[in-house]
Amino acid sequence: MPLIAAPQEYTGTTRCNRGRQGARLGTCTRLGWAEAASDERDCVATAVAGNSVEPMVQVGHGFRPDIEGMRALTLAIIILYHARAPFVSGGFISVDVFFMLSGFLITGLVVREIRKTGRVALGQFWGRRARRLLPAAGLVLLVTGIASFFILPSVEHKDAGLDISAAAVYVANLLFIRTSTDYFAATQIPSPVLHFWTLGVEEQFYLVWPLLLFAIAFFLYRRATKRGREHTNALIIPVTLVVMGVVFVLSFILNVWLTNVSEPVAFFLMPTRAWEFAAGAMVGVGVVQIARIPQWLRSTMGWVGLAFLLWGVLFLKKTMPFPGWTAMIPVIATVLMLIAGTGGIGWGPGVLFRLRPMQAMGRMSYSWYLWHWPVLILGSVALDIAWTSDNWLKLIWLPLLAFIPAYLAYRYVETPLRMVPAIAKSTKVSLLVGLVASLVGLVGGLFIYFMPVHVKVNVDIPQGQLVPGAIQPVPGPAGRLTPSIEQVRNDRPPSYGKCHLPVPETDIPQCIFGDPNGSITVALWGDSHAGQWISALDLIGKENGWKVVSYTKTGCPAPNVTPYLTSYKRGYTECDIWRENVLADMRDSSKPDAVIVDSIKPPSVMDSNGQVVSGDLETPLWDQGWRDAATAVTSMGARFIVIHDTPSLLTDPVLCVDRNADNPAVCDEPADQVVPPLSVDVDVVKGMPGVDTVDFNGGICYVGTCPMVRANLMVFRDQDHLTATYANALAPGMSLSLVPIVVAAAENTAP
To answer: pTM, whole model, 2 decimals?
Structure first.
């Protein structure tokens, strides 16, 4: 979130004008940040009701030290939250504070311009934003791209390059939606530019918002010659308030609806955040009316707002739906604090916000925000510090040390480029500077994306006794790992195209593998753990004349339970619908002789009362779900074949092998800790009529150990999925178990 994304800019030397009749109607402008710490108390606009012709300009144009301090406070919260400090569980709400501050400052700035000139100089507005924000961001992205190349494991390079490139053109938030990034997920290595999603939202706001205000100005001032300029000026405030109110309502409704449907999309999308900008905007254009509120009441409101914000920071949890209704907490808190500082600080929270340390931190907050995250992520990787709350006292030093590059960038890049007259006075040059800065950032992304890296993994290690007929080394260059460490993440089965359904989809695509004209029909059913077998079943089907029909969906197990979607913070109702559609398609269309099932037990499911349950409370529901699924299939006359689930590893195998290429055996994990117990699936249905069980973990683990590399093959592509290459290598051993069962099932179902 750009902490100074909507900067308080100054266009002249310090001057403070007091109004008459005791009313301090201050208009205050300054040249740059150099004077920002001096005589602030004389430059705070503290307007009260009066007879000024331009009351809004007088009230709203002053430097707001309270806003500078709010930036500092929120940056501190962000640093603590990102360093995984356990006592700021709701630190993510700081994002909303800055969106509101941007709406407040930018809308006030543009409306003042409209009242003064009757128009919006869009080029100048975008030029100022480009000059102010893009150079610092471009430098961070360039440095992050180069540093990531040397620090991140090579398997992460392409993803990091794509993220940095998207951040350079300010669409990182849209990319994270596309890649199903979970902002709250405690992944081992988050994107080094994950924080740029907020800058994407901000820049998209800066692109659209002035156009909306331009439309208001055009509509009103087009008639100014008939009705008079003074009358039109009187309309700009109420009309803007109405328009902002409409935006607020529509965006808030979209936000609440989409949070319930797809929370990650609602979290990253600008239209679902527009109501927060609009809330700040309405405060910004209503400063005259706000200034009429008694000082004691405004100050009280400010302290209530600060307390409300801190309550949210301390007690909100990432498991709560967000943004949705919950985002009202930081929005209301920020509104109250902005009201408190309008017309003078008084004894409100501004007395804390205007302290020199807060002001200094606030001035540097944008630069510090840009640097703190890549320093935190890359530093934790370089120092091998796990990104967990247990390590927060170690992690906290990294974003604090980010002050050093942040200060250097602020002092020698951000400030000089903003102040150079040749740049500041020319809209074209300002836009050109922004374009060049974006290209510089893009270079950082393209560098790590395209720079070749070849990690040679030592595969000449003891492999143990293999299951007879199970796997053989894949032909290829001597000593070459297959798939390569750079390609292993994408070594997925062919069903991961149109056939493996994402969360929202419930339709049944026609996905046929094996022999399309085979006399025996076999269905594969389940989540991604079932999907990992489709490559092997495709080979087995072609060899044995089986028509293989694939029914797989992300996170949706075959057992009849409703998983709880942690990322969406709701029950997986699409899974229930899809499961019924699968059974209907089997019954009415594919009519399989046998149904092969594999599913991982979800961390949590919904009970009959709509409550989230896990652990021992989940087990009875899970077991009954297996029995329901088996009964549904066998009642059709098909055989129900359960594959015992594959290992769920303790660490990321790809990262471990990448880091230990000379001796990948150090990544091996104990089978008794990673292979699920038989009680999780096989034992539940064993003995039921029409049910068979198979276990292929003997071809994955041996002698109590689950290796990451076996017979020059990379076994896993992530912590709980096999590579398609390794699954294919298991096909001969799988045939030994499956063929007799399926053939017998087909004979029993033959007319």
So the answer is: 0.81
